[in-house]
């Protein structure tokens, strides 16, 4: 029996498709997330989950 439920959202390590910059972001962003190096939009809020427009390298626990 699980007393404390696990969150359904995770942090993601992603890589920008334009400049190959890697950064960590939340899987359910509430605002537009841009690449810190080139400024390309890599995630947008969409319904209950985010729309990730970068390559997901790892799901962080």
Automatic annotation (TrEMBL):
Keyword Ribosomal protein: yes
Residues in C4-type zinc fingers: 16-38
One of the GO biological process terms: translation
Residues that, per the record, bind Zn(2+): 16, 19, 35, 38
Co-factor binding details: Binds 1 zinc ion per subunit.
Gene Ontology MF terms: structural constituent of ribosome; zinc ion binding
Keyword list, A-Z: Metal-binding, Ribonucleoprotein, Ribosomal protein, Zinc, Zinc-finger
Pfam families assigned: Ribosomal_S27e (PF01667)
Domain of life the protein comes from: Archaea
Record carries keyword Cytoplasm: no
Gene3D superfamilies xrefs: Zn-binding ribosomal proteins
GO cellular component: ribonucleoprotein complex; ribosome
Required cofactor names: Zn(2+)
Family to which the UniProt record says this protein belongs: Belongs to the eukaryotic ribosomal protein eS27 family.
Subunit structure: Part of the 30S ribosomal subunit.
Protein name, UniProt field: Small ribosomal subunit protein eS27
Organism annotation: Methanococcus voltae
């Amino acid at each position: 029996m699980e007393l404390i439920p696990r969150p359904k959202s995770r942090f993601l390590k992603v890589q920008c498709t334009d400049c190959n910059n890697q950064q960590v972001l939340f899987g359910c962003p509430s605002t537009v997330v841009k690449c810190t190096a080139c400024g390309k939009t890599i995630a947008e809020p969409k319904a209950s989950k985010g729309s990730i427009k970068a390559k997901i390298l790892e799901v962080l626990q």
